[in-house]
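explain this.
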Amino acid sequence: MVVEPKPKRVSISDPGPVFLRVGVVLPEDQKDLLFLEPKFSGSYFVHLRNKAPVKLRSKFIKASVVEDKVELYFKEDNLTVKNNVIKLYPKGVRQLSPQTGWLLKNIKIGRGFHWEQLVDLIYPYSLEIKAVSGALQVVNIVPFEEYLSCVVSSEMGELAPEEFIKAQVIAARSWCRIFLRDKHPGQDFDLCNDDDCQRYQGTTFLNERFLNSALKVTGKYLADKDGFLLPTYYSKVCGGYTELPIYNFGFTVEGLSSIKDALDNNKKAPVPSDTSYYQTEVNYCFYCSPAV
């Protein structure tokens, strides 16, 4: 049974993380074979612990578990390497770009939910691959602010309004600071890529709107009057009435109460008796996360 951690008291003045370690393939996925492909121009480096990095260009990469170690095969370079931990990272300085990074094929999302499935996703910057209890573990090492841009493009549709995107970025930033390293205690990553943390599907669904909107609220948080960050829980749907934390998590959270999702303090506007009514259809799907 997974127990929801209580939110930490984090001051807005405390320095936040520069980089995050996000688990994108977890040991619990029981995956001992993984195919990867670089989705960027130029070469990249493979780095084995206590050895010098090697520059490669292979487009076909196979990762597997062999004798409790991780083994990578690079087809075009005709190279096989095996070690306890192997890192992959592009050559040179890279900026976050849509659909750019490392394509990981058939990785699990929606763990434990009814939408659990295997999908292909693209993760930016560097990867750390190791074997844990006979299964692969892949950690994506990504700058904190770039992680948030990828979270909002994974949590909502590409046509979401700009103000909605900005609000989601602020909520995701505050949530991450409070629950960093608490959701997966004892693991060597800060957060995972799935819904029990925040949905993080890399640059797969990223576009310029998400990047530009996130940039406008860089470094902004939700905090209380004493300067402590608020645990900004959020969900896809509240059913018109948000739930009290005590019923969801078994504990109270200061500053969070149950409210109706209605305008004007729940007041009803008077409706004249001669009002005409028309039926219309509105598509709210642009608020939803991308279809995968």
